[in-house]
Design goal:
By secondary structure, the chain is α/β, with parallel strands linked by helices. It is built from 18 helices and 26 strands. The strands form 5 sheets. It has an 8-stranded antiparallel beta sheet with strand order 3-2-4-1-10-9-11-14. Strands 5-6-7-8-12-13 form a 6-stranded antiparallel beta sheet, with helices on one face. A hairpin with a 4-residue loop joins strand 15 and strand 16. The model has no long low-confidence stretch (mean pLDDT 92).
Length: 610
Amino acid sequence: MCGIVGYVGHRQAVPVLLEGLHRLEYRGYDSAGLALPYRGKLRARKTQGRVQDLRDKGDTATLPGNVGIAHTRWATHGEPSDANAHPHTDTSGRIAVVHNGIVENAEQLRSELTALGVELVSDTDTEAIAHLIAAELDVTDSLEAAVRTALHRVQGTYGLLVLDARRPDELVVARNGSPIVLGVGDGEMFIASDVAALVHHTQRVVFLDDGEIATLRADGFRTSTLGAEPELTDKVPTTIDMAAEDYALGGYPDFMRKEIAEQSEAVRRALRGRLDDRFATARLGGLNMDARELRGISKVVFLGCGSAYYAGQLGAQLVEELARIPATAEPASEFRYRNPVVDPDALYVAISQSGETLDTLAAVQELQRKGGRVIGAVNAVGSAIARQCGAGVFLHAGPEISVASTKALTNMTVSFTMLALLLGRVRDLSAADGQRIVDGLRAVPDAIDQLIGDEAAIAEIAQRYAKARSMFFIGRVRAWPVAREGAQKLKEVSYVHAEAYQASELKHGPLALIDPEMPSVVIVPDDELLAKNINTIEQIKARGGPVIAVTNADLPASIADDVIRVPKVAPELDPMLLTIPLQLLAYHCALALGRDVDKPRNLAKSVTVE
């Protein structure tokens, strides 16, 4: 994996391919490459490094041709290198393949190919697919048929794009677990793994479903099932409400900083038309559930990975507080492997910014197989999880480019607050408390702007602590998921080791690590646990540990080395605002250490493999 781009039409292909790859750089990658047909053979160029390195390599920018495929790779099989970069080709140089996903039986296929005398030149799983397709073309004159038959031997996940040098007027794509989207132009077709690579050219798109294959020519496309007896699938292009400028920096130094600044407006979008003052509740029509069904929910389970999981923990806390329904959050990556007991009266919420996270999608499918009721909370219209669930809450965060999630995480929390409010108001949450939450939600955007206005002070604190070898993030109850997310952000973008602990657990072991070289970021809401949180700070200070307090409470003077002040809205909404300074703290620590905040090492934006 990580980024796929393809083109067939009337333009020169290379500029389209390189621009598409550039727009997918935010997803994280370690090498790049492209291939075009030329007189029945392939012209391939690939390199370890950035898209600019590919652009600068030899004659890449001047290669002629109106059809081509390209890829940015994030290593799964084989180290980052020129040889392991995509596209991969067969021995004759006829077939080129780019692939996102993992071939689980790759070693078996590679052994079989080697036994037949095929010389493999990479360590990747993808190269085997190119040889399998080439072999099938010895017995059929249809590229689509050859791809379909070859894929019947492949176990695993793929978003696949195939070029045959002897058929320079067509491309074939297939999907099983890894996203592929087609862009429909005027006498031209585009292919990508993300709409970000397409919106500069067209807003008319087709999302392939799992188990689907498509053949594309300049004048259109044909889709069908991948089965042994294929059936045509009548896909109709839809229009997406996105434009190229949504993916531009707009004067900011990087996308993470831009998206931190966009959070207030993102929250306003998420709230627009969803707050009901008459009944002091929220309107979430995408749930497709009436009041009787909502009252019948026995528990709520949030499923997500990484920051989405921590947002789910915040959501579970809100549901229990406001609706008094048992609620929990689980890592989606573990859910199906523990053979879960699925409650048909529970509501399961699958959380994913991209809507393509494979672990979360697999959890959805497992739930549906066992009769569970599952909704999606996603930020991408037409994504796999959105289509699989068929109901849910759209996050309205806008395109999120930086690998480290900021505005999508905040909008997840906003959405789960509205879900908790809705569930509470069909039960025992009073109208007065409901209106208090409604008013608090309306106050959140201005509070976020106030926090970001204090960025300079947070940046100064980050400068002082950026070179710490490790940090603790401490919180309890409402603040515990905030601490986990804060530690994650710091690790993601600064590479500083960080651990999150519940404040009450410090004395059960981790306190042994506290010393003058170990800063602790302590999350202190102004709630019923304030005195206990102050006691935690005193325990840390007594052992010489520096303390950064992130709080909306009035703390005793000089109890913390540094204090980051947070505005108050409603106590239940404290976690949402307490998270924002931790984004800025991580961001400025990363800048102080010279990190590339938008492209953290070893990470990708959308994780579509296990």
